[in-house]
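Re: nicotinamide-adenine-dinucleotide structure - here you go.
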Amino acid sequence: MLHVGINGFGTIGKRVADAVRVQPDMTVAGVAKRSPNFEATIADDRGYDLYAADGREPFDEADLATAGTVHDLIETSDVVVDTTPSGVGAANASLYAEHDTPAIFQGGEDPDVADVSFNARANYEKAVGADTARVVSCNTTGLSRLLAPLRESYGVEKSRVTLVRRGADPGQTGRGPINDTLPDPVEIPSHHGPDVQTIFPDLDIDTMGMKVPTTQMHTHSVNVTLESEPTTEEVTSLLADESRLFLIPETLGIDGAGKLKEYTRDAGRPRGDVWENCIWAESITVEGRDLYLFQAIHQEADVVPENIDAVRALSERTASAEKSIRRTDEALGVGRGLVEHDGSPQRVDSHADD
Ligand code: NAD
């Protein structure tokens, strides 16, 4: 059983902890937090041991028990997943090295924070036995999952992607825009293209970024010039075979991220999370060697299964990407639950006398 510590229990950290909890080969060693806010009470409720990142006093005052400091958590963990805000992970790197504990960082850090930038479908093997890995950002994860099978089956000559990005996560009340559509960043290419090249160094890719007033999901408008000329049906079938790509059937009537999130909530997904890239099936179009499609990426969720695979890769317990991905997906329900509903409320028999 792998003991996994989570340092930083916010948007990504709490999802990673819950995903660790359902894996057959992992357990949550504990979570480190700075403040006893609502997420600390959720950690307590889940039974995760709380460790203080910045001193135990605020937790004592809030009557929340702590099991120790972040140093104790790192020492007791086989692997630590650092899910602190961008930049804090890099500052924490020396802590993990000090304790000789393998560590996983997130996409908000610069690539040089870790030995390898990681995407399970594209380069799992590179992280096997490494001391550190960086799970690339939500957008880079979404693009890597899509480009990996296309490269393997047809070759990719050039990729052009416009990323229409959510302005904020639902909990980020201070971010925007709230009434605008921003080229962001204005410079071209946006940072996303070079980030995808940390996974595929030889890939020719140009990216343009925008920010819009939604908290739901990112949407990618994708054009890939392939090296061969498959049919639309062949590409559709290739993508449909990937467990972390969900092809939205036209019949569902899902016209955007709003209905997509409503669908996953109806289907009983925790927090309405969408771990898969969601590709509108009827958008998949091949003209000559040019492939076009639209995909939606749930920024809070798609990196979660990747973090689980990264834990297995660093710990060297599972040498093959295929095996780890299958294990993670089965335990979480990735690739299921969007079309196989299992979240309907269950009848609870009452034992009341009346
Ligand atoms: P977040 O702000 O929601 O959560 C970070 C948590 O870490 C907060 O609870 C914060 O209080 C805590 N924290 C701050 N400093 C700390 C410290 N020194 N020690 C321990 N905990 C500390 O951030 P997030 O959205 O979960 O992002 C975490 C990382 O994941 C970032 O690198 C981000 O770029 C990346 N990421 C975020 C998203 C997203 O859409 N939210 C998607 C993919 C990757």
